[in-house]
Amino acid sequence: MERPKLNRLTAEVVNQIAAGEVIERPASVVKELLDNAIDAKAGKITIRINGGGMKMIEISDDGIGIPKENLDDIFDAHTTSKLRSIEDLNTLMSMGFRGEALSTITSIAKVTVVSKFEEDQVGYEIGFSENGKSEIKKSPREKGTSVKVEDLFYNIPARRKYLKSEQTEYRKIYELLAKYFLVYPNIHFLLEKDGKKALDLPEVKDAKQGTVQLERVKDIFPDNTGLAIFYNGSGISMNGYVAHPSLHGPRVMKQYVFINGRPITERGIVRAVYEGYARYLPFGEKIPFVLNLTIRPDLVDVNVHPRKEEVRFENAFRIYSAVQEAVLHTLEKALSYNPKSSDGDVKENQSLGVSSNSQNSFAAMRERFASKGNVSGGNRSYSDSGSGDISFNNKASSVRDSLLFSKQAMEQTTGSFEFSNNEMVKESGIFTNIFQIFDKYIVIEFSDERLWIIDQHAAAERINFERISRNEKDKQNIQTLLVPQQLSFSQEEKLFLEEHKQFFDEIGFKYEITVSGIDLNTTPVEFTFDIEKMFKEMFELADNPAILKQNFEKLKHDILATIACHTSVRSGKKLDRSEMISIFNELVKCQNPYSCPHGRPAIWKLTLDLIDKNFERTY
Ligand code: ADP
Ligand code: MG
Fold first, then answer.
1. Nearest alpha carbon, ligand 1 atom 8
2. Are 229 and 272 in contact (CB under 8 A)?
3. What CA–CA distances, in Å, run from 301 to 90, 266, 267, 297, 311?
4. CA 29, 18, 262: angle at the middle one, nearest 5?
5. Domains in the chain, ordered, with CATH?
6. Neighbours of 25 (CB within 10 A)
7. Mean pLDDT of residues grouped by 10 in the chain (619 residues)?
8. Are the C-beta atoms of 610 and 405 separated by less than 8 Å?
9. Closest CA to 266 of 320, 229, 218, 225
10. Closest CA to 42 of 61, 67, 59
11. 300 Cβ closer than 6 Å to some ligand 1 atom
12. Beta strands in 121-212 (DSSP E)
């Protein structure tokens, strides 16, 4: 056998290998050049793309420029003007710092740089191609820098083959640019595609870098359905927009997370956003959002990914809870209704500017909670600037109306979300009329000029949710199946069922683990639905091991809500009078009759007074 020989790789090959990690495709070149322009404090950036960026990418800025004496070295590996020692990483806010972008790009493409440093009299040009570095020569230009990258991967055919069509590569570039448009409202962006102007996005007046501005999120939130979000805590601040809950849909939507001006992929933050929405969104539904976090540099490591698309937090939990809290606060504030507000009635298309009044009531509520120990302390403050008037379309407005009601109901109680049974029963009083409309709502008229509208499915879910939860304690409502039901599950699903056997046992599902799944022996009573489907949905909930470990209580709640949903009367079902009365009676006995376990409202209370007012019958 031939003796293996060690070869020392040439600098060129080493660079090309490294380039594979940093430069995957044309969009990665655009990203590196944009980062450099931003670090150079550009106010205007022009991006020219030819042939999907495979033929040519040119990015010009009006930033500080590169001094002549540095030009000769910028193509060398590990030359940077941004970082001196490893300690600097703890305070660094710049986009680049490894000094490798330009050197790697020159190893896989032809590069020309023209730059004029602010203080230099003239501009200079330098190039790098297969023949090496060119002589520096004078080249007239205004303050700033242009970097032109041609024939990407010309010398690595294998990588070139890996690229997609021009259209696809251009789309990927555009998707990247769209992110920068969001967090750099202070920069004027010009985009040119194959010699034609594609976009001209002037800077937003008086907008600060790193703030998300309404002008630049219009595509993401139609009809102004974006709710401004703000947070300022120790070491973390946040701004951006989250969607009004009515904007939810089943498919993945535009979701952007930025940390210190960098677009990043961070599933934990996305999850935290959804946790903030928990009470406001049907399970599994998606919403769009744009979230920009500014985190003290020593609390976040940006040096964990070759393209800096991922970060590591010193204390991820702290970040996630801040996000969750900020989202929840925004939703509560925007969707809350202040019963003491001037006219009290709710008009369609009315603007949802949050009055200082309702601000106070929120603060008061918060305080009550804090004193009960439900909200952890800590120094944080919410700024309300920019949360100006946001008007909603009719659909949103009706969703809001019903949400408003629940909030109002909650605020009128003593500050706890639990309701005493007696109070509710007393309040429900004697009804004089009960009927169903549209096969989904129960309307109840009371003798004392009140009118309730109950969402039959939400109400049934609430009733079943509380009934099944009670099983945990008193096992009253469990039935034994005559013949055990055999259900098959995958290995992971079986592991989950084994891990949580006791919990399921307590809520009424007793089973034995078998080779292919489980033999189910008991279920909660009145349980006649597709059990297998229900389990599958539960596994989806538990899909995320982090949630599971962190917060089994929440998962339990979600599982119970899923079960409740499957057992409950659907909307669209005709009810007879006795069924309506039974739903009403059961609902008022619930601990929290006002919303279904997913957080949607269950009752809308109206009064004759309010109805009269709507008809301007004020005498
Ligand atoms: P890094 O950004 O990590 O410092 P790069 O290889 O991207 O490394 O750039 C090397 C150096 O070239 C930068 O540190 C900066 O001094 C200079 N430079 C590159 N692009 C620009 C630009 N558009 N404007 C001003 N200086 C630039
Ligand atoms: Mg750089």
1. 99
2. no
3. 8, 13, 16, 7, 6
4. 45
5. 11-201 (3.30.565.10), 214-335 (3.30.230.10), 431-603 (3.30.1540.20)
6. 20
7. 86 77 92 96 98 97 95 87 78 82 93 95 94 93 97 91 90 93 96 95 92 90 87 90 85 88 91 87 84 92 83 88 91 63 32 30 34 34 34 34 39 31 59 91 90 92 83 68 86 81 84 92 71 75 53 68 78 87 88 80 86 78
8. no
9. 320
10. 61
11. no
12. 124-129, 132-133, 137-138, 144-150, 188-193, 196-201
Cβ-contact 62, 138 below 8 angstroms = no
What are the backbone dihedrals phi and psi of residue 82, each rounded to the nearest 5 degrees, phi first?
A: -105, -20
Decide whether any atom of ligand 1 lies within 6 Å of the 81 Cβ.
yes
The ligand whose atoms approach the alpha carbon of 128 most closely is: 1
Task: Output the furthest CA–CA distance in the chain (Å, rounded).
Answer: 106
**22 neighbors 30 (Cβ within 8 angstroms):** no
Beta bridge partners of 47: 59, 191
pTM for the whole structure = 0.60
What are the strands of the beta sheet with 510-513, ordered from one edge? 478-488, 517-524, 510-513
Residue the block writes with tokens 């809308």:
604
Cβ neighbours for 377, distance < 8 A, ≥ 6 positions apart: 370
**Distance from the alpha carbon of residue 132 to the mean position of ligand 1, in angstroms:** 19
Residues 306-339 have pLDDT tens digits of 888 888 898 888 899 899 989 998 988 887 643 3
- The token duo for 105 is 């790009």
Helices (H) and strands (E) in the chain, counts: 19, 24
Ligand sitting nearest the alpha carbon of 78: 1
Distance (Å) from CA 228 to ligand 1 centroid: 34
Name the closest-CA residue to atom 23, ligand 1: 37
For residues 217 and 228, give the distance between their C-alpha atoms in angstroms, rounded to a whole number.
11
SS (HEC) of 439-465: CCEEEEEECCCEEEEEEHHHHHHHHHH
Query: Is the CB–ligand 1 distance for residue 36 below 6 Å?
Result: yes
Q: Dump the DSSP string for 343-395.
A: S----TT-B-PPPHHHHHHHHHHHHHHHHTTSS----EE---TT----B--HH
The CA distance from 49 to 30, in Å, is 9
CB 190 within 8 A of CB 49: no
- Ligand 1: does its nearest atom lie under 6 Å from the Cβ of 63? yes
Q: What is the dihedral of CA 208, 214, 216, 217, to 10 degrees?
A: 130
Q: What is the pLDDT of residues 438-497, one digit of tens each?
A: 999 999 998 888 899 999 999 998 888 888 777 666 666 678 888 888 998 887 778 878
CB distance 493 to 588 below 8 Å: no
End-to-end CA distance of the chain: 106
Left if phi > 0, otherwise alpha if psi is -120 to 50, otherwise beta: which for 334? alpha
H-state helical runs in 241-382: 267-277, 316-335, 356-371
> Which residues, 6+ apart, have CB-to-CB distance to 585 below 8 Å?
none
Q: Which of 193, 176, 168, 180 is CA-nearest to residue 56?
A: 193
Which ligand 1 atom sits closest to the C-alpha of 35?
2
For ligand 1, is residue 37 a contact (CB within 6 Å)?
yes
